[in-house]
User: Fold this.
Amino acid sequence: MTGEELHEVALTVNGTARTARVPARRLLSDCIRHDLGLTGTHVGCEHGVCGACTVLLDGAPVRSCLLLAVSADGCDITTVEGLAAGDGTLSPVQQAFAECHGLQCGFCTPGFLTTITAGLKANPEPDDEQAREMVGGNLCRCTGYQNIVASVHRAAELTRAAGLAPRPGAPA
Amino acid sequence: MSSLFGARVQRVEDDRLIRGRGAYLDDLGADALAAAFVRSPYAHARITGIDVSAALEVEGVAAIYTHADLPDRLGQPLPLLIPHPDLTHGRTPYPLAKEEVNHVGEAVAMVVAADRYLAEDAADLVDVSYAELPAVVGIEAAREAADLVHPDVPGNRAANSVQEHGDAAAVIAAAPRRLELDLHIERSASTPLEGRGVLARWDEHAGQLRLWTSTQTSTGVRAAVAARLGLALTDVDVITPDVGGGFGVKIVHPWPEEVLVPWAARLLGRPVKFTEDRREHFIASAHERAQLHHVTVGFDDDGRIRGLSVRFWHDNGAYVPYGLIVPIVTSTQLLGPYKPDAYRVEFDSLYTNTVLVTPYRGAGRPHGCFVMERTIDAIAAELGLDRTVVRERNFIQPGEMPYDQGLMFQDGRPLSYDSGDYPALLAKLKQLIGWDEFAARKQAAAAAGRRLGIGLACYVEGTGVGPYEGGHVLVETSGKVKVATGLTTQGQGHQTVLAQLVADELGVPLGDIEVVTGDTRRFGYAVGTFASRTAVMSGSAVTLAARKAREKALRVAANALEVSADDLVIEDGIVHVKGDPDAGMSLGTVAVLSNPLRYAFDEAAAAATQFAGGGDLTRPPVAEDDEPGIEGRAYFSPVRSTFASGMHAAIVATDPDTAEVTILRYCVVHDCGRLINPRIVEGQIHGGVAQGVAGALYERMAYDEYGQLQNASFMDFLMPYVSEVPRQIEIDHLETPSPLNPLGVKGAGEAGVIPGAAVLAAAIEDAEGIAITSMPISPSDLFELRRGAGA
Amino acid sequence: MKPSPVGYSRPHSVAEAVQALASLGPEAKVLAGGQSLVPLMSLRLARPEHLVDINRLTELGYIDISGSNVTVGALTRHAGLLASTAAGRAQPLLAHALRCVAHPAIRNRGTTVGSLVHADPAGEMPAVLALLGGSVRVASGRGDRVIEAADFFLGPLESALEPDELAVEARFPVLAPAAGTGFAEVSRRRGDYAICGVAVLASLTDDGSSIRQAAAAYLSVGPVPVVLDLTDAVAAQPAGDRAASYAGVRELAAQHLRPEGDIHATAAYRRQLAGVLTERALRQAVAAAAARIGGGRS
Assistant:
């Protein structure tokens, strides 16, 4: 990108300090994918409807295609690449998707994984209605959602089993 | 080792994808220039001038091309992929519009720049002047032909086609009863979450092109691109990356972008990448589903169909690169599991100034199913008979298989059903949904002021369409097995399913097998992924290839172990004497021994060198009819398609005030022969059902009379979220193995979507008592129907 | 779909922000949540020359609850307001309507004040502001002013803000003791813009036996939120009786509303929905008011 004013953007991405110099119009989705080389976050529509681009901004799911990178300066971002443990162990949400056949082409999956990761942190024991609500804003064309909802419940189970669920009253 | 055939194995693809390590098209080519396109804002216009001067001033622009810049071969219309004698007026687009544009979204100029942002800036500044022409939109307008899409195509008719068996007109006239129906399905589209994309690298020294494209046919793209760019096939590699869904739209090739991007890469000496955005996908890829049908049916008092005559009009959009496949599938698959005494189907495939129409999951079957099932329901209503009873009376019986419908199918071969048991399917479905108990439930609900309705629909699906697929199996000296097949993958779990087959055949652990699809470097002869054919075609081919490799391995091992090959088995990757696991060797060692070496490149290889000992010194190291290595290559080419079938039933509630439709239950019984991986098959059904429901209640392309697509985004094209699909999809299986391939399998990829519109139309009609003849149906549509019926 | 080039500044105070707006002129736009603005920019339907990003003005991220109003600062996200139990107690309609705004990921970033300024007639929060008779306080180099709801929405996507004004807070009147609210909308998919939506505010007589007054505000039936006084059709109707018919409001809605048709719904169907949903929301409001009185909460 030539000629346009560039802005310094400092982000903490998956626990690591990263910087980029981007024009103001650079979407956060493109910054993550192309400036920072983290291509796990996908772009399905660029108008905020499909949710494939969902990342966690200071812990909360947001559509990275609806944010300018400059606007996210100073923020803490978690992408799908940051969900597994440092030693590579899959997170309970990731594990659940593999067990429940919750993905087919995998394109929408990163958006679901980040969304559900945050969702279960806020509500570790969702009932069926709440599980569906949790994934209610993400589009999938392959699975018909049946196994994605099953994955939410399985992820909750795995989280509990691993003793990872926040205790009631404990800080998240 | 127990067999993996039929096992609910977890997918081998998933680890990579859930870690965010997928490699989809746009994830590749970080160093590539970006392409963007100037696209027509008009549905029909002549181009009177193009001025790129202002656009060229944008910093970072490498080049801008219009049709005038294209060399002769590239400046021709793109190929008509599937010719047919009835397709008398086939028209295909130019890669960049030459003098005329025929739909909003047609490519007029290509901009290549440092990145997509700059490319779009430049595209904004390309000044194209147009002289608008009248736009032909919708089937009625196309049929009326007051205006023409293509000046040399009279009546906007690309084709008129008739197929028949028996004399339908006479049989209908002589039948005790007759009905006529007009039925309508609106346009929709595949809309995978990932759009199209192409990345090209030109190697100037080698004179070779490497192309990545989000396609359903790597070999198709290779052949077409090589032809258009004047390259030898062997100088073009096409690699299919991870693909974020296809559902049919990515079988079309070559897209304009697929020939223009490599051409530009070669000219510019830089890699070039095109990633389609969502708006482009709506206006520059392909749609499907719009047809208008007129049905005349003659039947008797028992509901037996004597004669069926179907006249329909198919909207093929501005061009027909994919020929007549969709309406041909409609024409033939309309018959479903039934056997009218006489059948005649005639269609016109019509041009309109809209996006081109090519297969979308179901590829014409959903339309045919809708028409046939609505007709049968109408017959049942007319006679006051139960809708399942009328169907039973018209079913082809299991004892009549194979059953020849007397028509030609989309593979150019006879429409002959090889196997199936429709009565058994229906019995299972009635049991699952509680068909016989529903009347009481409906009555009880009505007393409480609720409107419930039940519907069912049956379909037959020709799967495993030819001409062939191939498979290659290689055992490496490490013991790992590399499998390749030329067709492609868009999420169906091919790498897992094909590995299961090879694991069984070779006796190797699943984790030691790696499957590659869609890469012409690994397998160069293939057709593509469509028509639910992978399990049948590539499944059979890799199985046969694995068998050859196994046979070779046993022969080499037998020779080395000095036993008979008949005494050997392979388990967990070890070839050993039956009953004596210690008397054996690993497959990896067998692979080493199968390749007589001069040089030991590592310790294990030493066993195969000339001084290692063993072997018959009176014979050459490699026999005359043999090859080094443990490999198998095989092709599968069936004499015709194999026929899967299924039936769906649904119970809906309609809101008396808001006309909203809620699906209370959705049941599926289906028969795709033997199941290699039931979990993957169920996943395919889930996804198909979601698309069927979407097509029945939510999705349609809303074109205005000027040919402007009013809902070219996910905001207004209503792809369903979880809240719009049934909470539960109840599935029961039936297996009538296919006699046409060694595995006994039939395709399953499209099954879920085929009867969606039919079953929901039936259920809504049952709830409302109003004829539903047009799909999709929204609450607003239902409200207006109620008003029209005075309800 | 990438935005066209745009200038950018990120002020650290409201004063800096209004100064920037004043000097940059009408081609500058405020960037808060961006959930409406950014996709318009990506589609190149909006091409502002400059963005004034107010996301650093954290001092505007407040929710104040007083005896009369729930006051929401410009940087308060929908999600924050939805999560506020205090706000939910003071004015239940806020949470009820916010639950229908898009999806959680949008609500995590989108601001309530921003959605008011965006003035989409299909938006939930403009209708809520109109119904409750709230207001928006705006700042500029020329000083502050308060714009009442009735004067705030000028047309589709057009608010009464001047180009150099920054909306700094919105005031939503709290719920009166003998009152209740209801909200009902029908959208094609869950989370979509409503085909028709209705918010209702009803007050009962002090003993809670019958309806004293009721009003409804509508989304997606006109170029701006439409407010109807329902009192004539429901005054003195019993409040505690579930079987009571409020059918009169259906006719009132049908008489006074002139919705348009589009690709999702005909005008007639919207009118039908308006009537049905008015009755549904009214029932909710009456029941809520009755419970409030019965529960003795103030």
